[in-house]
Amino acid sequence: MNYKKILKEIETEIQSELKKGKVADYIPALAEVEPNQFAMTITLADGKQYSVGKSKEYFSIQSISKVLAFSLAIDTYSTSLYKRVGVEPSGSPFNSLVQLEYENGIPRNPFINAGAIVVMDALMSHFGGDYAALEKVMNFTREISDNPIIQFDPIVAKSEMEHASRNLALSQLMKSFGNFENDVHEVVRTYFKQCAISMSTEDLSRAMIYLAFNGKDPISNKEFLTEAQAKRINALMLTCGHYDASGEFAFNVGLPAKSGVGGGIVAVVPNIMSIAVWSPRLNAYGNSHVGTLALQLFTTKTGLSIF
Ligand code: DON
Q1: Is 299 in the pocket of ligand 1 (CB under 6 A)?
Q2: Among 70, 92, 94, which residue has the most ligand 1 atoms within 8 Å of its CB, making it the best to mutate?
């Protein structure tokens, strides 16, 4: 397959869509990003990468980080974690409070905000505090992306903490149901730092290859998760990775994938490759408009959907 040519075609075809959608402005620091950018990278099992656009540009990975933290958490807690966070699609926006009240403070899945905050709470309990938990997530991210200089952006994290009402409300509600172990503000602050990790599509695509190959990175030969754990994360990405647009994403793209409000999306083609796209303008569900379109074009042109 001529991936270079296919990526070039995609880059040309998305041009007329680059001005559609809106950057996330509920986090003021994200609203300052130049909106009409695009990058896409694929990584194959032998480590070969193909990219188009600004594939070295760092952006805020936001909710994509939920996959990284959850990978660490299931490795740490195994199935006991599922007492605190479910595995069902929510059918609701990523920051919705409604379902959480009906369901006694147990978030539907680890990729909506409430679920990811519970995962950070669990990591803090296990690793002994905010600093240690964040370091674990950062070091895991550096290791899987083979890039030791990856950091979180403190300006983005601070900006989010200044507009944290909804995530604090979700956390307080979970605490009222007994599904919270640490200080609410400390957990939310650490969760924001995790969301503020900056990476490029080259980094992200490289990082996700362990999920395309049953938990084992085929480039470094390091085993990060068991086959069963990787299978479960891919299932969650497929069913919950795009919130209330997960069905539509599966319908149009057909790959396990996770989006972030920074405009990034990662996707895996099992046993073949990992993909990262980035374009900051979002659709009504908070997922990258052009990123989704680029992945749809990719599976249409290559036939590489899982269906
Ligand atoms: O907590 C938040 O709202 C953000 N840090 C993450 C949300 C997000 O990326 C949703 N994804 N599309």
Answers
A1: no
A2: 94
- Name the pTM for this structure: 0.97
Fold of 3-62+197-302: Beta-lactamase (3.40.710)
Write out the catalytic residue numbers: 63, 66, 191, 243, 261
Q: Of all atoms in ligand 1, which is nearest to the CA of residue 63?
A: 9
The full set of domain ranges for the chain reads 3-62+197-302, 86-195
Indicate whether residue 246 lines ligand 1 (CB < 6 A). Answer: no
- Separation CA 229–CA 237 (nearest Å): 12
Averaged over 294-307, what is the pLDDT?
98
Give the tens place of pLDDT for each residue, 118-154: 999 999 999 999 899 999 999 999 999 999 999 999 9
Residue 139, H or E segment: helix 130-145
CA 131 to chain centre: 21
For residue 196, the CA-to-ligand 1 centroid distance in Å is 10
Q: How far is the CA of 156 from the centre of ligand 1 (A)?
A: 12
The CATH number fitting domain 86-195, selected from 1.10.10.10, 3.90.198.10, 1.10.1500.10, 3.90.1150.10: 1.10.1500.10
Please state, in angstroms and rounded to a whole number, the distance separating the CA atoms of residues 287 and 177.
30
Residue with the two structure tokens 């009504």: 284
Ligand 1 atom nearest residue 167's Cα: 1
Compute the distance from residue 63 Cα to the ligand 1 centre, in Å.
5
Helices (H), the chain: 3-14, 28-31, 65-77, 98-102, 113-127, 130-145, 154-161, 165-176, 184-195, 201-207, 209-212, 227-240, 246-252, 289-302
Whether 209 and 218 have beta carbons less than 8 Å apart is answered as yes
